Amino acid sequence: MLDDRKVLFSGMQATGNLTLGNYLGALKNWVKLSDDYLCFYSVVDMHSITVRQDPATLRKRARALMILYIAAGIDPEKAVIYFQSHVSAHAELAWILDCYTYMGEMNRMTQFKDKSAKHADNINVGLFAYPVLMAADILLYQTDLVPVGIDQMQHLEICRDIAMRFNNIYGPTFTIPEAYIGKVGAKIMSLQDPLKKMSKSDENPNASIYLMDDPDTIRRKFKRAVTDSEACIAYRDEQPGIKNLLDIYCACTGTGTADAVKAFEGRGYGELKEAVGESVVAVLEPLQKRCAELTKEKDYIDGIIKANAEKAAYFASKTLRKVHRKIGFPDRIR
Ligand code: ATP
Ligand code: LTN
User: Fold this and answer.
1) Known catalytic residue at 28
2) 309 and 165 share a domain?
3) Are 302 and 275 spatial neighbours (Cβ–Cβ below 8 Å)?
4) Which ligand is nearest to the CA of 248?
């Protein structure tokens, strides 16, 4: 704990076009969490280069993601939002932690297996060590809580293992982080295959609502959303398409599930799809407008980027110094 608040850390990659799943499942909750915790939200650009990136595109997307954090409502005075590459302690601690992580542990990581199958021509050491950099992200800020999706739980476990190993050798150094599990229903499913998660790497663009989709595209994608032939609006696992539409509607309007089901009782799927589409447009249109406005405010955004990188570096360097002392690196002469 750095002050009287618990510390919360999360990060997002600027690769691909963010989806409604990323917004409703992560970003939107991050905003609320920053009322109760000292939050660090990073644009993890160093993780992005584990897969080959076009430099101009990465630079543009990373900045757009930073702007999106602000547009979504994260207060840059309250939460620390910064680019991972601006705080060199991440790379420095990652190297040290590499020396306390076993090949066998990394070999078990399912994301590494998936991604190396997908990028067979570029199975690099960074991709292999991805979870160690993620552990460094988390441990640098003495993080108590990490909101992540289920797919990142294995990485969080390894982070805890590394931290405990280090603490066992050198005495208490790192806070052992816990996963922060958001409320149920935070998983938004594909509009084309409601048994699959909505994902920015889905090759079918109709499966996902992208945060920058225009209103007509949003409406059209919902019209085409896969449902079922039951002709009955109910919230149950046997009707995953309808369940997903109701989840999206509730998340966008703040309606409770039971109330939503009641409101759509006896109505057709077409009507439901239209209402869900409108509820999403009502959320995304203002968000897009705020992004466009903020993009024009170059000096304001630059100021936030600079001030927050300094804030993050201040906290991170405290932990890094502690680690240096513990492992026996010579003191710096000041
Ligand atoms: P990829 O398709 O490249 O795996 P992704 O869309 O699954 O990407 P991530 O970058 O892995 O997104 O995740 C960023 C954050 O968004 C994570 O916290 C994750 O839990 C959340 N998230 C991603 N997709 C969804 C979804 N469909 N529903 C809820 N939350 C999601
Ligand atoms: N690997 C995560 C992004 C990420 C992260 C982190 C999340 C990088 N470092 C630290 C939580 C804490 C992802 O791809 N979703």
Assistant:
1) no
2) yes
3) no
4) 1
